[in-house]
Specification:
The protein has 306 residues and is α/β, with parallel strands linked by helices. Helix content is 37%, strand content 17%.
Length: 306
């Protein structure tokens, strides 16, 4: 089978080498497309491929239509909203992710962003400590649990909301269960977001929830920018000069927000959650192994478009 690694943001060389080794040992042919500039370049490269490994690259109807022999797309990472799942399903293409492989990297970044904001972005101003503060985690999956464990180790109180988990499962993960968004936001000095961008979550975090946060509250978003209602965010920051927002993906209105609110808002220059050497390698190798298993035994354990 022909496998294409297509990454505008390339894997680390060690990851590419490892992916090649796994796939070629299993008899697959591997090609590489890195730092491409247009979707047209991407479309041209997929014409004869049977499987595709991507990172944040967009697999649209255009890309799928250009790949008549494509059977499998593996997103090296947890989120997969960059893939048109409906179009893939119509064309009989299986889409997978690699859950958990980037989780520790994202969790460490979430903690770092909390400290960064509480220390006034490392300016000379007097900051605060996160020890003793309450962290609310919205979605208690792989990343959320790791954020909670690290926060607890730093002396924080951890609460979590996840409608897909029982109270017992949340407690087993080291957090106190919360049963509504309103309660989570009202009781948390920090709220850390780990929800996907879905029709139900897009624009769901806005004024009404943020206005409930205690004095000095900080919203930490290492998930997706689309879940934020930016107009609501601006309104609450305007009305509540004590609140702050920090993100791993800049809001569309980031320049205006930064100009108006200064050190109360910060976004990383580029999505950094999975940008560690370890996560880079882990996710890439997992993607390669999943391709091998799929073609050898039909393993669809990590399929996301069932």
């Amino acid at each position: 089978m022909k496998v294409l690694i297509a990454t505008q943001k390339p894997f680390a060389p060690a990851a590419v080498q490892g992916i090649r080794s796994i796939l070629e040992k299993a008899g697959h042919e591997v090609s590489l497309l890195e730092k491409y500039e247009t979707q047209e370049e991407f479309a041209a490269a997929v014409a004869a491929v049977n499987a595709l490994i991507i990172r944040s690259d967009k697999v649209t109807e255009q890309i799928l239509a250009a790949a008549p022999q494509l059977k499998l797309v593996v997103r090296a990472g947890a989120g997969y909203d960059n893939v048109d799942l409906e179009a893939a399903t119509r064309r009989g293409v299986v889409v997978m992710n690699t859950p958990g492989q980037n989780a520790n990297a994202v969790a460490e970044l979430a903690i770092a962003l909390m400290i960064y904001m509480y220390r006034t972005q490392f300016t000379p101003a007097t900051g605060s400590e996160i020890q003793g503060k309450t962290l609310g985690i919205q979605a208690f999956g792989n990343v959320g649990r790791l954020v909670g464990a690290k926060a607890a180790a730093l002396g924080m109180k951890v609460r979590a909301l996840d409608p897909f988990l029982s109270d017992e499962a949340i407690r087993a993960g080291g957090a106190e269960p919360v049963h509504s968004l309103e309660e989570l936001y009202a009781s948390s000095d920090f709220v850390s977001l780990h929800i996907p961008a879905t029709p139900q979550t897009v624009g769901s975090i806005g004024y009404d929830l943020l206005a409930r946060m205690p004095k000095g509250g900080v919203l930490v978003n290492t998930a997706r920018k689309e879940v934020i209602d930016e107009a609501g965010l601006a309104r609450v920051l305007r009305e509540r000069p004590d609140l702050r927002y920090v993100a791993d993906v800049a809001p569309d209105s980031y320049a205006a927000l930064r100009e108006e609110f200064g050190l109360r808002i910060f976004a990383t220059p580029k999505k950094m959650g999975a940008q560690t050497a370890e996560a880079n390698v882990n996710a890439g190798l997992a993607a390669a192994r999943q391709i091998v298993s799929y073609f050898e035994s039909g393993d669809v354990r990590f399929q996301v478009n069932k």
